[in-house]
Amino acid sequence: MAERDARCRQLGGDAERRSAVARANDSGLERVSAEARSKVCIYPGCERPAVPPDPRGGPQPAFCDLEEHNALSAHQERRRLEDESEAGTR
Ligand SMILES: [Zn+2]
Description:
By secondary structure, this protein is mainly alpha-helical. Helix content is about 55%, strand content about 0%. It contains three helices and no strands. It is flat. The model has no long low-confidence stretch (mean pLDDT about 80). The structure holds zinc ion. Zinc ion (ZN) binds next to loops.
């Protein structure tokens, strides 16, 4: 019974996450700004909050307000980290 209970909770969490994404995609601006506070920069190792979405609309940036944190630099940093971990296993 305990196992079944755990699975139910997992499914619930997943559905919650999916509905959060759906809400971010529609243009309910008030709700989006509430979520923006919990959104964190996706740059590897960065835990700064992501910049809030433009009040006139548009998707919320996935990065914080640091200029060097953008899609390109994040990609490069991820590759650098991958190289490093590969070098460590060798
Ligand atoms: Zn950042």
